[in-house]
């Protein structure tokens, strides 16, 4: 039988698919679909009705007013999920990457980005064949080796002191429970991301979709792969983070806090502390921070999370620009 590629643009059309990778799941597809400014696409390759591979990507519409610009970016969080022999993966990924490139061009995306790869050499030949260029990136990961070791033992002395002081000052950590919690959390986090002009921050519907999916337990266990942690002081949300869970790893997707207003409550510290505690208690082996910058310059967020006891390691992100001259220049500079 010949291989068949299928593209899904609406969640109602997506059938039951195999797999456990949350970054390529139907649940995440529905979250993107319900978020203004996001257009997801799910590609599958099947043979005789049996799915061999799938990959989820999303087109993000990014608008900034200072400085003013509008850009569309197509992002895939990983190289996909496969249900075939290892020797078939490279060819299947190559076909999906070609189709994803065509779709991004049709959607007038300025850049395609593939990130969160499991290894620096993952998909190397296919990326080169499709004129993508690599940029070295950093990852920070906390590993929970000792089941009996408390999270606080891995923290730096200053972090342990801050956690203790925040708890003594009345900070309460937990998960978002109500619609009001979601609205306060999203507003607080958006203020944190306003200064990060090159980062995409989703509309509030992104967080509402996560919360609704968690509450509607009849949808399926896949919705338990998302959590929204909040840090409260005197009933007000002053910090928090969003985590996504896949395999044996928890990922911190968004995090922040009102650190200047609540100096002695350490909201950003408490948000990460709660994510670490919950990940270990839930049986995950790692907690990873999804965006800690490149190795070429200092990165404040990377320095911040490293004081929780994690380790850095290098990976790659692959890019392709719509403008041919710019892409050729980057191929020359980064290859």
Based on the model shown, name its key terms:
about 325 residues, alpha+beta, Aminopeptidase
Provide structural commentary.
- It is a single chain.
- The protein is globular and about 65 Å long.
- The chain is 32% helix and 32% strand.
- It has helices at 26-33, 86-106, 124-129, 157-168, 179-193, 204-215, 267-281, 300-306, 324-334; strands at 3-8, 38-47, 50-65, 68-77, 81-82, 111-115, 133-143, 171-175, 226-233, 236-246, 249-257, 286-289, 311-321.
- The protein has 2 domains: 3-130, Gcn5-related N-acetyltransferase (GNAT) (Aminopeptidase), CATH 3.40.630.30; 140-314, Gcn5-related N-acetyltransferase (GNAT) (Aminopeptidase, 3-Layer(aba) Sandwich).
- The chain is built from 9 helices and 13 strands.
- Strands 1, 2, 3, 4, 5, 6, 7, 8, 9, 10, 11, 12 and 13 form a 13-stranded mixed β-sheet that branches.
- The protein is α+β, with helices and mostly antiparallel strands and 335 residues long.
Helical residues, percent = 25-40%
| Rg from alpha-carbon coordinates | 20 Å
CATH topology of the largest domain: Aminopeptidase
At CATH level 2, the architecture of the largest domain is 3-Layer(aba) Sandwich
- Total DSSP helices: 9
Biggest sheet architecture? 13 strands, mixed
Low-confidence stretches: 217-223
What is the CATH class designation of the largest domain?
Answer: Alpha Beta
Mean pLDDT: 90
Report the CATH superfamily of the largest domain. Gcn5-related N-acetyltransferase (GNAT)
Q: What would you call the shape?
A: globular
Structural class: alpha+beta
Distance between the termini: 38 Å
Q: What's the total count of β strands?
A: 13
Element-by-element helix/strand order = EHEEEEHEHEHEHHEEEHEHEH
Q: β content, as a range?
A: 25-35%
Number of domains: 2
